[in-house]
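*** Query protein ***
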Amino acid sequence: MAFCMASVSHKINKKNLWNERLLHHCKTMLQNMQRFSSTILQRYQPGRDFSWFRFFCPPLIEKALAAACSITIFTFFIFFILFVLAAFISSFFFSSHFNYRKTPRPIVFQLKCPAGNLTRSCPGSYPTTFDTVDSEGKPAVCPDYFRWIHEDLKPWKATGISRDMVERAKGSAHFRLVIVKGKAYIEKYKKSIQTRDVFTIWGILQLLRRYPGKLPDLELMFDCDDRPVIKSDDYRGPNATQAPPPPLFRYCGDSWTLDVVFPDWSFWGWDWMLEAQQGYKQSDVSKQCTHRYKIYIEGWAWSVSEKYILACDSVTLVVKPHYYDFFMRSLQPMHHYWPIKDNDKCRSIKFAVDWGNSHTQQAQAIGRAGSVFIQEELKMEYVYDYMFHLLNEYAKLLRFEPSIPKGAEEVCAETMACPAEGVEKRFMMESLVNGPSVTSPCALPPPYDPQHLGAFLTTKINSMKQVERWEKKYWKNSTRTL
């Protein structure tokens, strides 16, 4: 073996290799081979004579081994170049074609209020577009109550919405909203109750800051009063006076009207965000959540107290409502709340409490289901997404090009918040969207198919009838009186 290695080394020295460094590496390699071979042979066959091994190194093998040294280093060099080139190409390819996987960094845009806070113009520094990224390349599906967007816009699905239809809603509206190229313009007609119009507009501006450039051009009328006014009987059946109805946005609806239901941002924006941030533990909500049962009952129309009551983990006793806001229609009796008759409230509440006290686990499950619905499916980002999808789907129905009226003014966060004072200014600053969302709105689920919607409504009706039967039996067999 030693003779073989020495002979190969001698042959290599005679060759004109590339350079001295190459020769040095070849000698090192040969020496390592010699040590390795001797060690292995002695380990497995101790005391044996391996001088015969030199006969396996004829001149042809010597030349091959010398050439192999050169070829090995040359091959290594070629593979190294190919590896670097492949790394460069793959890096370029993935960065070019899969850039959506990179999460954009959030951008913060503070309000630009000059001295005196008398801003009357909107700055041009806020982005008009912003790239977003979503897990697995697509946004999550919105909660199921988003399907009611399709139902609320169904009256105009076949005909679309003309300018004449929009103008016919003007008589009831407090303001006209126009969005053109991502900018908002307001034409005011009358003052609303308290500051509803102000904070409804403010909420829409926060939506535009959250999703810049994502809403199409649109034009609509908004009524800030409590009760819906577009009577469905006026536009359906043989007695219809005109069709289709004017699209009018407001905060609630009922079974006899066609008003388009929009979240009341004056209640959903500021206070609801603070509740969520504090985990419903440091605010007035936590002080109200000290009872096993909570009662929800409407006032003049729907009541904004519903979401606070449902968030408590208590069993919510809902006196049969006549109005609904944007999410109420998806609540199921006996799952999210306990239904109470509106024409016999006291006896109905008495039975509900007795039933809950004797069925504590079922009662706790109802309270928990209502709370989970409010805290998980009504997060503030979903409120914004509901606003977004409602406006986006509405815009698809327009059969005219939105335009800015002569009496309209451009509005933005600066024109509203900078001159504001006191509680109003604090409200705006605490609810300000500081920059674009790095994720897209959730994906709007498809409309209800008639069979699915019918089954959902039937389940709701049957649940209420079941409670009525239990209640009737309870009072029939009871000696209690009220």
